[in-house]
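Lab manual, section 2.4: Encoding a predicted structure.

Procedure: take the sequence of the chain (412 residues), apply the prediction step described in section 2.3, and record the output as structure tokens. A sample record is shown.
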Amino acid sequence: MKLFATFASVALVQSKEDIKTQYQERANKMCTDFLTGLNAGTSTIETNYLANGAQGVIYTCETDDNSFTGFSQKPPVPNKSVLKIYFDGTDIDLEKIEKIDKGLTAQNLRYPVYEYVHLAKSSDPEWPKTTAKFEEFLSDRKDFEEQSIEPREARLEIAKHFGKLHSATDIEGVSKTEYREARKGWWNTYETEAHIDVLVSIIKADWFQTGASMEKLYELTQMSPSTFDDEVEFVTKTLQSYYDDHADDKWLVMCHNDPHGGNIMRNKDDPFDPTKLVLLDFDNAGYGFRIWDLLYNMVNWNIDYKGADGESKLIKDIEDFFDSYIEAQTYDTNLTRNTLWEELGAHAPYFYLERMTFLVAFGIFDPTYHGIMRSLYDDAIDEYGHKAPYNSAVSTDALFASFILPLVYFFM
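Recorded output:
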């Protein structure tokens, strides 16, 4: 349950202006303390609200003091950086996030986090205990939010980033077994039934006040209540059986876990510069199944594969993606494309059922998108000779006319 309580209590209740006001004084203090500690004069420091997301509010901290000594630090601290303050009352594991941030920064596997800040609870001014971090300000870049991940070189560079991230050495103090604990691994988990149960709880409670309900879930998945329950059991058995039979744990790696287009940045102008590509926001990072990062990203490519040669283009793009990943990773010398296809097959049924359920839980009721996901789910389970009865007759012609999701499941 670790993420949705924070989302519901903070992100959807307060406006951006409310959040900006609530955290501005703390941001001013943190920026001043951080930059004066690097020899910047107080009068030269500017603190500006930038944005807020699901887990925290973001400011920029900047100085134009010529006496600033940040560039002599390791890693070097430029005169402008980002301050992320985590929301009050968050139930995410901030100790784990801090360890991962510091560990990946030390291994040069993420854009650098310069410092963590822990403000004690204070009554004057009235602040609760606060956790925040200073990290690199990524200038002259744009993300892939709501657009295709193009050109091809961008996808291959993303695969390389995954390969390097997944090759990270173990980070001290971060559990490698959390993914096997119910409600601990969030969506990249062995305990898939427990995770879907969490999403169902969100739906039943309509946590986000969007009109979510089990009736809406059954309508959009086109499953009866008993069929949905049977499919949760099937996807759990499918995933767990595969990994129980492949218990060498080479697939257990440090994962990003949320690599959608909005969490990946590139240079702002064309042509594409691979040296500027960056994975953003490691707040969901943790040990889990490597294929999750690859599959999650591929489903966010947003590329049109319609047409007579669409299937062959899709397979070629996936195999190129896999090959780029295999070449970049260093932790599994025996890794092959076929192994990744097998892992994809074991994960695909769970992935698509989880996505359909997740979307309803978070208030996304698009019948076209759900229809595509249901069709992809059917393709995935068909490889196991399994069928999920439809609860209503729905034509998929219109759905596939607008098909932009890249991943149809294939056994190779």
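Check your result against the sample. The first helix runs from residue 4 to 11.
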